């Protein structure tokens, strides 16, 4: 049996957003490796070995998965969302780069998936319908000053922003700092959306403005969307308004 | 029969990347509306009416789809990639905003999908593994000076860039202008990837650097990825190198 490793994203939650390619690999693998919360959403076959771990040390998890593949196992590394967006794929390549040269010949592939911002955007309407940027607000792996600079420049570029990991129990205050930076750069009426646990039973969506929003409602399961100049709210007879970004910007030919 | 409208993304090409939710709606709809090229990738049932159109006037296509839904049809608006990223979803909401108030009560929803940059990133490794921005290089709906400004600020922010629609027959020179801007802002060794028709039979991937790349190879089916400071190439025994962005940046705690 010849080993392989696939980095698989299971999307934001429900099975209806897992691609057929990913579902097939999740079924075909001999070994499933991942963070406990994500593995808990997958039903293993009787023959599969499940290697779950706590959140945190992604590099150790990636090394373990590569080791299993080198031993001939057929390994699915299970990630939330899309594995290439603030998830396991980068950790796997960091492990390959720092690992034994022999592992560079392993049969490794990443399978694309639905990342949280696309699910949140679809739920709201089309807030990512014009140029946007995607930032991880966690400073676990980069200094906070880089995050500050990126927020400022993104605001000056009039990008819509999709902000992952805005807060956690260990980082409760940074989302307030991020709002302070954005409030200094952008108009108070800028549309802000807190999209929590999209597609899951406890989904919660709050549409507000930069001036009025309370950043304290963001937690580690929230994706934050900050609108641009062309982002609009469109009231409906009932329920949340649609939020979308216009394709056409002033001065277009 | 009660009308509805779903904006559906069929991903970059192959069926293995179409979510079960989207596949189900494509099957259940009474009417399929879309650009001819995308509709050509869907096999309609015998009972379905297909309304195809040329590329271009997305707003007219969106209005037609809304009209069908208002008449009680169950309409899938078929988009490439993810419908919310430089695709049909924004046009549908622009049509709702400028259309009759009665249409705001229609049963409308957007279904998330796999957008081109996620498929391209997965094919390459994990170039979007750190903060990134997503720009549409077409100036059909926004002035070129906005694109120039966004490119400059994105470079200063050290974002990885996913650049959609870098060139077309009508816009052959702008990708050269974009490269000139990026070359003035970023080191010559910055990783650049031309990802053409990812997942389709004529897929072509070129990995190069900002200093050496020839922008002329970009066309309307190319997604361009421009790396950041933390983006690395990792040689393999054969085939293309892996391209990935490190999660950790200098000065991290």
A few lines on this structure:
Chain A contains seven helices and 13 strands. The first copy, chain A, has 253 residues and is of the alpha/beta class. In chain A, helix 3 (58-70) packs across helix 4 (88-98) and helix 6 packs parallel to helix 7 (174-185).
Can you describe what's shown?
Two copies of one chain form a homodimer. Helix content of chain A is 28%, strand content 25%. Chain A has helices at 20-28, 36-39, 58-70, 88-98, 116-124, 144-156, 174-185, and strands at residues 4-9, 31-35, 49-53, 74-79, 107-110, 125-126, 132-136, 160-164, 191-196, 204-209, 222-226, 231-234, 242-245. The first copy, chain A, has a five-stranded parallel β-sheet, sandwiched between helices. Chain A has a five-stranded mixed β-sheet with strand order 7-8-11-9-10, sandwiched between helices. In chain A, helix 6 (144-156) links the parallel strand 7 (132-136) and strand 8 (160-164). The relative contact order of chain A is 0.14. The interface between A and B is large, with 80 and 80 residues.
What's the arrangement of secondary structure elements?
Two copies of one chain form a homodimer.
Chain A: E1 4-9, H1 20-28, E2 31-35, H2 36-39, E3 49-53, H3 58-70, E4 74-79, H4 88-98, E5 107-110, H5 116-124, E6 125-126, E7 132-136, H6 144-156, E8 160-164, H7 174-185, E9 191-196, E10 204-209, E11 222-226, E12 231-234, E13 242-245
Parallel strand pairs in A: 1-4, 1-5, 2-3, 2-4, 6-13, 7-8
Antiparallel strand pairs in A: 8-11, 9-10, 9-11, 12-13
Helix pairs in contact in A: 3-4, 6-7
């Amino acid at each position: 049996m010849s080993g392989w490793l696939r980095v698989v994203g299971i999307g934001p939650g429900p099975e209806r957003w897992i691609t057929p390619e990913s579902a097939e690999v999740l079924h075909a693998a001999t070994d499933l490796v991942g963070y406990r919360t994500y593995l808990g959403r997958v039903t293993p076959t009787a023959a599969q070995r499940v290697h779950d771990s706590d959140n945190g040390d992604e590099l150790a998890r990636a090394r373990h998965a590569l080791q299993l593949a080198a031993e001939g196992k057929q390994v699915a590394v299970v990630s939330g969302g899309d594995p290439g967006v603030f998830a396991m794929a980068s950790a796997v390549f960091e492990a390959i780069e720092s690992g034994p040269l022999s592992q560079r010949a392993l049969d490794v592939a990443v399978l694309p998936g639905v990342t949280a911002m696309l699910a949140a955007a679809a739920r709201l309407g089309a807030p990512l319908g014009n140029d946007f940027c995607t930032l991880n607000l966690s400073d676990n792996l980069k200094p906070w000053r880089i995050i500050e600079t990126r927020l400022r420049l993104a605001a000056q570029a009039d990008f819509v922003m999709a902000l992952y990991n805005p807060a956690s129990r260990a980082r409760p205050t940074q989302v307030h700092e991020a709002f302070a930076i954005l409030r200094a750069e952008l108009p108070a009426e800028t549309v802000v959306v807190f999209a929590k646990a999209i597609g899951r039973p406890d989904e919660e969506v709050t549409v507000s403005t930069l001036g009025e929003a309370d950043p304290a409602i963001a937690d580690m399961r929230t994706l934050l969307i900050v609108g641009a100049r062309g982002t609009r709210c469109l009231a409906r007879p009932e329920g949340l308004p649609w939020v979308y970004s216009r394709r056409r910007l002033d001065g277009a030919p």
